[in-house]
Known about the structure:
single chain; about 675 residues; alpha/beta; Rossmann fold; seven-stranded mixed beta sheet; six-stranded parallel beta sheet; 16 strands; about 45% helix; about 10% strand
Amino acid sequence: MRLLKRLSSGDFELVSFNDENPPPYAILSHTWTEGQEVTYKELVAGTGKDKIGYDKIRFCGVRAAADSLEYFWVDTCCIDKSTSHELSTAINSMFRWYQRASKCYVYLSDVVVPEEVGDAEAFRVTWTEAFQRSRWFTRGWTLQELLAPPCVEFFSKNGKRLGSRISLEQEIHQITKIATEALRGRSLAKFSVEERMSWAATRTTTLKEDTVYCLLGIYGVFLPLIYGEGEIYATLRLREEIGRRQEGQGIERLHDLSVLPVLPFPRNELFVGRGDQLRSLEQSLLPSNTHQRMTIYGLGGCGKSALALEFAYRALVQHARQMVFWVPAISQESFELAYHEIGVRLGVPGITEDNADIRKLVKDALSSGSLGDWLMIVDNADDSGVLLGTTDNNPMSARLSDCLPHSNRGTILFTTRSRKVAGELTPNSVLELNDMSKAEARQLLARRLTKQGLLDDEIAVDELLEKLTYLPLAIVQAAAFISNNDISVSGYISLFRHTGTETELFSERFEDPSRYREIDSTIAKTWHISFDQIRRQDQLAAEYLSFMACIDRIDIPQSLLPPRGSLVQQVKALGTLVGYAFITERQQTVQELDKERFFDMHRLVHMASAWWLDGHDERATWAGRAVARLEELVPHGGYEGKATWTTYLSHAIYVAGLSDTVDETARASLLDRVGRCQASIDADEHE
Length: 687
């Protein structure tokens, strides 16, 4: 195929590439103006610059450069239509070319946004009516240009971005009557022949035969072009070829099909940051001829699934023939349902039979190496019992992890909240995902707020992001509340200052199309799931977590924790909490390695742990244990063991401040001890 490259002089040149391995490129979708489009011969000759069509080429080149794409494709001048063989090849390849494009820019020549409108997406009223009437939605060829690319963006005639296929989904659905699932990237093969025909029923083309030829990619078929045969005969040939494809189309003919994504969510076009992590994933997993596996792990809400989803879509864009599968490991049932859907889409023989061994059939099919390259995302592998356990407690029984395919043509990426699970799944290939950087967090908030003017209060924005610890899910949840309730950033922060509102704010539900509907998309619920898992897996870790929720979250000495279990159990319990990123250990120098270990607890986890205890009516009990433990360790002043007991004072002060949980007598006792200890410290300093 030929691609355009923008030169420093402002002109363009055509560069030829192997059709099977082109570089990343953008692609233009537009409607033609008779006699005003720049042809292949004109571009080669350097003429045609006075045509209206040349402005579209300029536009596409500028947009591609803005998206860091060196090459782009425009149908009018990248195909030599004077050669019938080349034209036939191009039409049969068109769907695939759009499918492989990193970006598809839709240039709407009959939609103009007033120049004084800076943000067209925020002022839809200025162009919505023209958008709905646009000629682009009436043309036959633009149907595949709408559905094939992974990312479609719409622009006005004067180059203003109107939105994307995702952000304009409802408007496009109303105009075209195309199912929203198709707009979200669901395999077109899942829709009936007649339904796909209905999408094109009212569309027109200049040549009658093109009303049929423009559907070749929609059905994944190829036909020789016979201009002059008429629409009826062309339709008959199309239906005959579709029928042949449907007869016995099993796994052995899968290579004839287009990309096979099984992704549960549309691409998140509000995704920001994580550039280093994406590069690491791409370098480790994509360009390989050997089977690769890797695990992303991190605190609940840090964006593991969002990162995996973005990586999956990038794999589709950069490796267009690669099949991508998404397998939720939330439960054994969710895993097996995903495997069944994969088997059906692959056309695996026997997959729909009663009592079919779905796990083995899918594993064998993907392990065979005959299907080409594939990527499998195993998401939410948080509970080790799902993938690594057996249903009948028989250690010899097959585990779900044993049913994962292994092929030099395939790659598996896991996501989990647990470092322990990550280590068991891929011991030597783990990517830890921490909170966002300040710059990334600010960018995410900007993308999620509907009113960009709210960002002008930079002091309030910085304070909010700090309160949210730069955690992606917390930022998205806060932005949703701010936008839905039309309040300022400082107004949202002020809500935190009222007793009890933090719990309510972090329990606020919000819609997020990139998260599972069956999982509550709130900070509180996200971590409560982890708390429940910890209680099942490690009772001592759960006790430590409950205890820490009632003391200060900073500088927690290990010696302050309840003296339970063996030394090995204590180390494992702390390892569990560190593995879930609930706590972090303070770094020690080499000289301090044999001394006391100190830990800090994530600020939001500290709050959520307290909410969890409140919800289970256990906070008073654990606060009482914290009081009792501190009374054991904090003396009534003096100098003996001062180096040790000084590390407990901040925690005693914190517990004494829990006026709604700890009774007055216990609080007074703790404060008396703190006061006597402080007096001893002061006296020692003045000697």
